[in-house]
Amino acid sequence: MTTFQPAAVPGEAPPADSVAPRDSTAAAPTSIARLNQTIKGFIERWGSIWVEGEITSWNVRAGAIYARLKDLQGSAQISIVIWSSTRGRIPADLKIGDHVVACVKADYYVKGGDFSFQVSAMKHMGLGEQLEKLERLRAQLRSEGLFDPARKKPLPFLPHCIGLITGARSDAEKDVHRNAELRWPQVRFRTEHVTVQGDRSVPEILAALSRLDADPEVDVIVIARGGGDPQTLLGFSDERLVRAVAAAQTPIVSAIGHENDHPLLDDVADLRASTPTDAAKRVVPDVGEQRAIVAQLRSRMTLRLTQRLSHDTAQLEQLRSRPVLRTPERMVETRTQDVWQLVSRGRAISERRIEQGQLRTAELRASLRALSPQATLARGYAIAHTEGGDIVRRASQAPAGTALVVTLEHGSVAATSAGETADARAPEAPDGTSEPGK
């Protein structure tokens, strides 16, 4: 059993009539001052120790910060004091809910009997390990192609409805709504309020993302949160959320924190906005700018149409001024004489060719008639041939009694050869016929 050892208050001698706590009795009790001094002397021998816990209270005063740390596994708590001389050596972003380690030294206030711990150093617990794990996950997802620009979906030019995932009544929600409505007053939102830090944030964001992605009216989804320390933004680097965003069918805009904040959600989202305000400006077009563009395009179109009409009108007038179009009948008149001359020439040539053909035909007919056996027969000659069809050219070819056929100018007659006579030696006609009467 530990016994209390008396400890003198610095600069003050213990009362002469005081009794040490171990020697106190009902008849001779120790004083409260001696008891507190004994307790102070005992705990001062502990020295400085490192403890781990969660900040549950954080009250900033003029000269110090009074806070409480809770055990991570149970309900035990301690009170801590951070004096102004130490505040410059601890992170400025510490707040309720942070997981920290602190170097503390027990302190017992003798006059009031208050027990607390003075903090000489404090830092976020495990942030270095978490950031290292985050970078390993970033490298893995990059190797899988989840950050590939080719897989990112383009945002619609003018979304009919914007899905917004953010904290309830947060500055991020106000910034997105205000800036989007200033740019396009008719913009519509479907907002899903979620917890944006802590253990509940990832499941709630996943559920909200699933609902908005399944809504056919939602054209783009914005996940927005205000700034914060890396510890509070770790939920937006959760692997479950990153893979869900990569698998979503609706384009997703990441608007987490400020420009320097870089959770994994920024890399996998289809568009990374530096702030919620920037997200509102990039999701919807500015109505004033669009009106100016429309007016400029209308002016350019009017100018081009006017120039085209003027050019085409001038070309038409130039064509109409040509003689062939100004008096088109003149072209027909000038060609009429040519056509008449060509027709006359063609008729004369045709008639001459016909006459020449007729003369040539008559000559050929006369020549044919002169050479025709029929013409010889017409002059009184006859052709004798045997029944076998052989023409009789000499009397020796038709002995007496030979049946003959004699062809005349008109028809033929049958005859019988009487044999060779004294006149048989008479000369024959050139074509083999006999002259009449011979």
Automatic annotation (TrEMBL):
Gene that this sequence comes from: xseA
Pfam annotation, one family: tRNA_anti_2
Similarity comment text for this entry: Belongs to the XseA family.
Catalyzed reactions per annotation: Exonucleolytic cleavage in either 5'- to 3'- or 3'- to 5'-direction to yield nucleoside 5'-phosphates
Entry EC number(s): 3.1.11.6
Subunit comment: Heterooligomer composed of large and small subunits.
Cellular component GO terms held in the UniProt record: cytoplasm; exodeoxyribonuclease VII complex
Enzyme class, first EC level, given as a word: hydrolase
Keyword RNA-binding applies: no
First-listed, main subcellular location of the protein, grouped into a coarse class: cytoplasm
A GO BP annotation: DNA catabolic process
CDD domains xref list: ExoVII_LU_OBF
Function: Bidirectionally degrades single-stranded DNA into large acid-insoluble oligonucleotides, which are then degraded further into small acid-soluble oligonucleotides.
Residue span(s) of domain OB-fold nucleic acid binding: 31-122
Keywords assigned: Cytoplasm, Exonuclease, Hydrolase, Nuclease
Top-level division of the source organism's lineage: Bacteria
Keyword RNA-binding annotated: no
Species in which this protein is naturally found: Microbacterium stercoris
Region entry Disordered, spans: 1-23, 415-438
Annotated protein name in UniProt: Exodeoxyribonuclease 7 large subunit
Subcellular location per the Swiss-Prot or TrEMBL entry: Cytoplasm
Exonuclease VII large subunit C-terminal domain residues: 146-362
